[in-house]
Amino acid sequence: MSQIRLAELLGRLSLPCDFANGSAPGKAIRSTVLTVELGRRAGVSDEELRDAFWLTLLGHLGGLCGARDAGLRANEDRSRTASSACLGEIVAAQTPLLTALEQMREGSVGSRTTEVETKVMPLRLHEVGQLAETAYQLAGSRASLDVLRLRQGVAVDGRLVEIFFAEQGSLFAALEAPSIFERFLEIEPGPLEWADDRRLDDVAHALAVLIDGRCPLFSDHSTGVAALAVRAAGELGLGVEETRALRLGALLHDIGRVSVPNAVWMRPGALDWAAWESVRLHAHYTAQVLAPIPELADVADIASAAHERLDGSGYPQRRSARTLSTAARVLAAAHSAVAMREDRPHRPALTAEATARELVAEVAAGRLDRKAVDAVLASLGLPDRAAPANVHGLSERELEVSQFLARGQSDREIAVALRISPRTVQVHVSSILEKLGARNRTSAAVWLIEHDLCAAPLSRAQLNVLYGAAPSS
Question: 166 by DSSP, 3-state: which?
């Protein structure tokens, strides 16, 4: 996977914070731009400016662990305790930035001028920038200035407020720039930070911890799904790159969950229509956050499919079997298994044996992939296995021929692969068409794929060829 600038990655991944806190999309980006522009005009050092940039961006990401609902404050405090370390690791933060993150975590908004003066400069810049941006979004520039004047020297640095007033024209202009994301990338103080494979994994893991920490129901959920999915991938013999994309997708599959209030997740009874729609849409928000990042295109496709089902009954897109990769199928099975083993307001956690029975039943109903479920069950050390798929009377040899038929291979190619004559292949193909009630090879190939009788998923190009032919059956 190619490298991506860490600022671009975290900037795009900050959107869930806006979902979680009811803010206008892009709050982290706007606040960071305003903070850095203010710092430049205040003449702070390059190191302080750099720390202010990352503090503001990471601070918004840390907001993922904040619970909006009353009664969950203890969980919020535990989450915030872990957040500073998680966020600091993302950028390999040095002592000044770690100090600022810790002061932010403690919520040290001073009630006296002396307390403001004890804060490090990056945090002072962040507080002015965030306060100004929040008021601006609510009621415009006049409200922003009024709030700053009201809290000057009491909750925020008085000198920085004076600089803000003196430079208000250019500062508000920066805030209103239509291409503010590009401006955000331009103002990152050097040296630029890049996310290689290892750092990308660190980011995904840190976000998973923060997201799961937002609600006590989901403690360690995403990391548990990722660990199980990787073990199942090993059972299936998936390649290194596909397994890595699966792990990232599993860690980030619930990044859109923060769009749903904890009160909905904690509801003990049946969900009404509005609550269920908000739950269903959280998977859509996962895709919305990840899909715009080119380097995470495959990860987005996997992550957003955690709740999809082979029969098209899943959400958010009601995708069918032919659009779901092996990794997506493994994630769906692993997610189901982990969720079943967790307590929910409407039911206690299922036992291992009950989980196995439920997963096998999902396969029988045509919702989960048999091979993915078997791999998950094997990874959990459970003896249960899903029954083989209905093969419509196809013989073992016909099933072998079907694997190649589904890939559009010719009789001669199939004959060479199976070491039988082309004439024998023709006989088997004719029998397959008759048993499936298919009119032609393309129609049979489509049927085999949709009924999960193809040993491995076809490439997107192969699918386009098959489904572009408008097969009849």
Answer: helix
| CATH number for position 422 | 1.10.10.10
C-alpha to C-alpha distance for 199 and 206, rounded to whole angstroms? 10
Tell me whether residue 29 is in a domain. Answer: yes
Q: Do 247 and 345 reside in the same domain of the chain? A: yes
Q: Report the pLDDT value the prediction gives residue 451, as an integer from 0 to 100.
A: 67
Considering its fold, how many domains does the chain have in total?
3
As a whole number, mean pLDDT of residues 201-227 equals 90
One-letter identity of residue 313? S
Same domain, 330 and 433: no
With a CB cutoff of 8 Å and minimum separation 6, the contacts of 209 are 82, 86, 222, 223
DSSP 235-253: HHT--HHHHHHHHHHHHHT
Do 72 and 117 share a domain, yes or no?
Answer: yes
Residue 452 has pLDDT above 50, yes or no: yes
Q: Are residues 139 and 35 in the same domain?
A: yes
Kindly report the CATH number assigned to the domain that includes residue 221.
Answer: 1.10.3210.10
pLDDT tens digits along 113-170: 447 878 899 999 999 999 999 999 999 999 999 999 999 988 899 999 999 999 999 9
pTM above 0.70, yes or no: yes
pLDDT at 41 over 70: yes
Host domain of residue 20: 4-195
Beta carbons of 106 and 83 less than 8 angstroms apart: no
Q: DSSP states of 3-67 as a string?
A: -EEHHHHHHHHTHHHHHHHTPPTTHHHHHHHHHHHHHHHHT--HHHHHHHHHHHHHHHHHGGG--
